[in-house]
Amino acid sequence: MKKILVTGALGQIGSELVMKLREIYGANNVVATDIREADNEVVTSGPFEILNVLEANKMADIAKRHQVDTIMHLAALLSATAEANPQLAWNINMGGLMNALEVAREEHLQFFTPSSIGAFGPSTPKDNTPQDTLQRPTTMYGVNKVAGELLCDYYFAKFGVDTRGVRFPGLISYVAPPGGGTTDYAVEIYYEALRNKKYTSFIGKGTYMDMMYMPDAIDAIIRLMETDAGRLIHRNAFNVSAMSVAPEHFEAAIKKHIPEFTLQYKVDPLRQKIAESWPNSIDTTAAKQEWGFTTRYDLEKMTADMLEKLSVKLTKN
Ligand SMILES: NC(=O)c1ccc[n+]([C@@H]2O[C@H](COP(=O)([O-])OP(=O)(O)OC[C@H]3O[C@@H](n4cnc5c(N)ncnc54)[C@H](O)[C@@H]3O)[C@@H](O)[C@H]2O)c1
Description:
The protein is α/β, with parallel strands linked by helices. 44% of the residues lie in helices and 15% in strands.
């Protein structure tokens, strides 16, 4: 990885990934793109271009013009948004991925795209979900993610494109807001704890899902991409996670810093149904063995850092 094109770069992951990549590989060697522009350091700190991932020719043109050797394809509609508009989700999630894979094939680029715990479904073993297991998701997002994993494997097997991916759990971060996922409550809870000392969760008590703090997610992407290809048995996509948690665990962790904090519940049936179709906890052994996946943040450490960083951010705004 020397020169990298990132799609969907202004989203929750891209906002932090682009800045980290620019720090490591040099500002001019990370070309950020998104369908929209924003008042954001991703736009001002290095090359930025407007790109709708459905515009295949423009994507190829940007890749050629900047002579990139890697594409990180992040643009997508997330689980709750996709479920509200499944046809649009299919078009963007599959059409965008196909276009990005074609650019990678034609230009001989290394390729990364994230899958998700949403690629699992109700018939998947719920606890310690294996790397290789039943994947029959019941959401459009999940259908897209499974098809995407298979398509990436196909491009590797058929055309030799160096495709790699991870199944991210819910990602928690303070830089950019989450983009319409089922685990968004785990970000909102920190904002509301600082603003109002209370939060109403749209996910029910006792609903376990995997989560991970954004710095660990960014490190995972870079570590996987930098791993010698000969070490990889799996490619698309590796289970990764840092914790298996339910809303009441966030409540307890936040209370250690803000004792007055209270958590209430008003369950959203759509997102609760999605959450219940996903695993409680996933097994990350393959990622650990094949490319040394590791995390630095557990719930306690993440909560302390989130509250500290977010309170600085909210005071500034
Ligand atoms: N954030 C998470 O918790 C999480 C978990 C698992 C997997 N993922 C996956 O990671 C990837 C990135 O997720 P994110 O959280 O950063 O998403 P996000 O919704 O925060 O950001 C997506 C970005 O894509 C852009 N976009 C939307 N449609 C586009 C189009 N047609 N062309 C170009 N750009 C477009 C949006 O403007 C946005 O900036 C997605 O594939 C998502 O499924 C995310």
